[in-house]
Amino acid sequence: MCTQANKLGRNPRYDILFEPVKIGPVTAPNRFYCTPHALGTGNQMPHTRAAMREVRAEGGWGVINTGYCSIHPSSDDSPLPNARLWDDEDIKVHALMTDAVHRHGSLAGVELWHGGGGTGNRMTRMPPMSASGIAGESTYSGWINLNKSRQMDKQDIREFRRWHVDAAKRARSAGFDIVYIYSGMNFGPYQFLLPSVNRRTDEYGGSLENRVRLTREIVEEMKEAIGDSCAVALRFSTEELLKIPGKNMESEAHEIISMLSDLPDLWDLKSSSWVVETASARFSEQGAQEPLVSFAKALTSKPVVGVGRFTSPDAMVSQVKRGILDLVGAARPSIADPFLPNKIDEGREDEIRECIGCNICVSGYHDCVPVRCTQNPTMGEEWRRGWHPERIPLGDPDKKILIVGAGPAGLECARALGQRGFAVTLAEGRKELGGRVSIESKLPGLATWARVRDYRTNLIQSMGNVDIYRDSPLSAQDVIDFGCDQAVIATGAKWMTDLLAPNGYPFAEITGGNVFTPDDVLAGASLEGPVVIYDFDHYYMGNCLAEILRDKGLDVTIVTNASAVSAWTFMNNELAEIRSRMIEIGVRVELENTVTAFANGSIELTSIYRDKTVRSIDCASLVVVGARKSNDTLYQELVADPDKLADAGIADVRCIGDCRAPGAIVHAVYSGHECARTIDSGSVTEPVLWERPQI
Q1: CATH 3.20.20.70 location in the chain
Q2: Cα dihedral sign for 342, 347, 349, 351?
Q3: Taking the CB of the first residue and of the last residue of the chain, which one, N or C, has fewer CB atoms within 10 A?
Q4: Per-residue pLDDT tens for 391-408?
């Protein structure tokens, strides 16, 4: 695809982003730095992992890092699919990635990791170990480790250092250019830094100099082992240490960076909590972590990298020019658009597929599957299905395809089909494109979600082979009469008022003048208080509606059968923020209950437990946030008469997005993209298996 913008070339104000940066013995070709982050692949899917990272090197990212990579069986995060460098057999697995990254002139980095007392070691069954035998939070905070930590003795510390050096040598053999020590986020070396966790009385405890000793020794020994050919990076969490006053400086974070200063070749600075670092757009602005890193460059001459969910090149330039960062770190923005650097370089900023900060990528990792992305449906499918985020096979330009519905599925389908060269008509029943995205992006804190619509509409409107008709609801006969070769139905879904039975299935629709769905509320329905929101959707809708209704001054209670408000949001790291927000705005919460009746100004609550306790609370308006039903009437009417379709020359009718099966926006976008990829294959392709183990 070529636009006027990409003929203009790079805007000179972004030139600074494309300057090379020396990192010890290696040089990054630019300042675009893909920071270490997990992909949900581990060593089990080496080809998948390599392809997921290669596409970002192809897209212009100067440095591509692995996620956390275990250095020893005593640091086992199973069943989470973390990478490992335990022995020489692991080298060839990582070489697939480094070779792939080097093909495009980028540097490859590996984040060596020992989780210390926070690892469960469920697979290896080794006892965790830490500075003082204090068990940290599990790296997967939803699970409680029954396997508690033991205190490391002097021999353990010597072995700990040796494991890092051995892993560093393996990393060099695998072709990595940058090798990390991870002294942050409650992991092994970091547990020595914190006075609350390190209660040792020997040379590794007590004074700050003693607590820093282990980190210093590992960096020194790694540099001695591989420093002539590989850069040695230190990943360091500042958040907690910034709160501890230093003896000679503002904080212990300042003093640690000053003490180690130019010892590592690179400082990678971050928060102390993954939940904080990956805060969604709803609860964190772009560049929000600047206070955690802004002081560092005054204390070291070595390059500094940090993150901030940067999607704007102007924000990136600002960080560099103001001396905050030397390298602009990114994980989520590089997932959403692996070609972000190249688009900036070519003057195509308007084509950047901006991260919306929904954290679906985080949930993929928690699910132990390759990372998914709402904006980028090809993420995780690069090797398995051969999907590329920017390239797609050309189709038949004479084939006419009608898409009914311009929500996220319809828009993505139209964009991808347009890119393939088909003659596409997109008909939307409303004046505004975007469907549920246009509605839901108006919810509190979700304005960035409009990027799902805007990215696609901006590209579609530049395509001469895609026609858009707004305010054009179509009947089955309209589709028949239109004269298309294939039709795609993307008419979405609607919320229902079915209640939830104890077995987990909706069992009865409740109706009445004071019973509402989210569709009703978002359409401007007038509610009386007190309001009860019965939420068994468990995602954002229930708590967002609660915030809207509280802003109107209504008394609001959320009832859920789960043990937490919006329980699924543990998966995208929003759970704590949502609960805090509900407390802050005065929303009452009734957990572990179902609504079983509503009449005469009250609802009946029934406990989910065996006692089945029944009680009533006041309720003038009930909002049910639970089941959704596909708006598939048009699709069903069309496929009910194959002969009529054939007579009209319509070879195929497909149903995509929520119209096919209600889900999150990520599912709708993927469905639309898959349809566009397979529209001329005869049928939607069956799922392709992941990598099979060799026996």
Answers
A1: 4-366
A2: negative
A3: C
A4: 999 999 999 999 999 999
Give residues with Cβ within 8 angstroms of 182, minimum separation 6. 68, 111, 112, 113, 114, 188, 189, 190, 235
4-366: CATH topology is TIM Barrel (3.20.20)
| pLDDT of residue 556 exceeding 60 | yes
Using CA atoms, how far apart are residues 568 and 583, in angstroms rounded to an integer?
18
Burial of 91 per CB tally in 10 Å (0-12, 13-18, 19+): middle
Q: What average pLDDT does the segment 337-363 reach?
A: 96
Q: Where in the chain is the domain with CATH 3.50.50.60?
A: 495-628
pLDDT tops 50 at residue 4 = no
Q: Longest Cα pair distance anywhere in the chain, in angstroms?
A: 87
Residue 13: per-residue pLDDT: 97
Cα separation, 180 vs 482, in Å, equals 60
Give the pLDDT confidence score for residue 146 in this predicted structure: 78
Helix 46-58 and helix 91-102, axial crossing angle in degrees, nearest 10: 20
Residue 132: what are its φ and ψ, rounded to 5°? -130, 20
Q: b/e for 417-454, b at 16 or more Cβ within 10 A?
A: bbbbbbbbbbbbbbeebbbbbbbbbebbbbebbbbbbb
* DSSP-based three-state secondary structure for 57: helix
Q: What is the pLDDT of residues 580-621, one digit of tens each?
A: 999 999 999 999 999 999 998 999 999 999 888 899 999 999
- Alpha-carbon span 449 to 451, nearest angstrom: 5
**CB–CB of 21/28 below 8 Å?**
yes
- The secondary structure of 352-400 as a DSSP string is --------HHHHHHHTTS----SS-TTTT-TTTS---SS------TT-E
Residue 196's SS3 state is: coil
Backbone angles phi, psi at 69, to 5 degrees: -125, 110
* Strands 628-630 and 493-495, bridge-based pairing: antiparallel
Distance CA(219)–CA(230), nearest Å, equals 12
Q: CB of 450 within 8 A of CB of 489?
A: no
Per CATH, the number for 495-628 is 3.50.50.60
Half-sphere exposure of 363 (CA within 13 A, CB side): 19
Enumerate residues 6+ apart whose C-beta is below 8 A from 422.
Answer: 395, 396, 397, 399, 400, 401, 465, 679
Residue 643: exposure state from Cβ atoms within 10 A (0-12, 13-18, ≥19): exposed
Backbone angles phi, psi at 362, to 5 degrees: -65, -40
Residues 6+ apart with CB under 8 A from 284: 309, 357
Query: What tokens were used for 535?
Result: 């939420």
What pTM does this model have?
0.95
400-492+631-678 has CATH 3.40.50.720 classification: yes
Sign of CA dihedral 186, 581, 244, 257: positive
Question: CB atoms < 10 A from the CB of 146, how many?
Answer: 7
Q: Which two three-digit tokens encode residue 37?
A: 């982050």
Provide the residue type at 236 as one letter. Answer: F
Is the pLDDT score of 683 beyond 50?
A: yes
Predicted pLDDT at 612 = 84
Q: Name the E strands within 210-367.
A: 231-237, 266-270, 304-306, 327-330
Give CA–CA dist 461/688, Å, rounded.
33
> Where are the CATH 3.40.50.720 domain residues in the chain?
400-492+631-678
pLDDT above 80 for 286: yes
Confirm if 496 and 506 have CB atoms less than 8 A apart. yes
Residues 211, 192: Cα–Cα separation, whole Å? 5
